[in-house]
Specification:
By secondary structure, this protein is of the alpha/beta class. The protein has 8 helices and 8 strands; from the N terminus they run H-H-E-H-E-H-E-H-E-H-E-E-H-E-H-E. The chain is globular, with a radius of gyration of 17 Å.
Length: 245
Amino acid sequence: MARIPGITVDQMREVDRLMVEEYGVTLLQMMENAGRGLAELTRRRLGGSAADRRIVVLAGKGNNGGGGLAAARHLHNWGALLQVVLASPREEMTAVASHQLDALDAAGVMIWGYGLDSGAEMVVRWDEAAVILDALLGYGLAGDPRGAYADLIRVANASRGPVISLDVPSGLDGTDGTIYSPTVDATATLTLALPKTGLIEGRPVVGDLYLADIGVPPALYSRMGLAVDSIFANDTIVPLGRYPV
């Protein structure tokens, strides 16, 4: 396996900053790459096809949620039966996440506006879901999830089907691996760019670990003093198995 170092939350913030300010890659582009990767991993975990499979997407208000919404759009295009539940009111969503939400609206995907209070608890077919996608909270979490976020994490954990988390399971500290209450108990996690260091200490809730390409150039890692080989030379999604190796 190629050399794959871990990265802290502060280092990942610097990667995001450099991507936008120095390398001309926008948050929307990175979000789209993340969403496409999540959709593709979901399709693979479903045996190669998402057609007519019921998928529930839990999306937060930030960039992680936007990645989940992008994944929902791709899966909808591939024939999946999508139900999307937002953890925050639409007016609180970031601009890039709102952009993804507008695209989903235009495609006619079923969206519940604000957590379980929107009626999702009664209408979303949780027990019929082939998979639940967790795109609630990203690497920046510090402290216990609250409100609708906590409610949706508990519902995901109580569901019968598998749960795939984007970047880190919602509720897990991306740097030190603290498992806050509640935290998604993921079946699989698709982390982005490089594995967050918290995924090692938080291994009990990570499930099968995968790494997705969001377009970070090797020169950026070198600039940060990180030695990174050509991780994605053969595929844009790499299974990490018993990481670290």
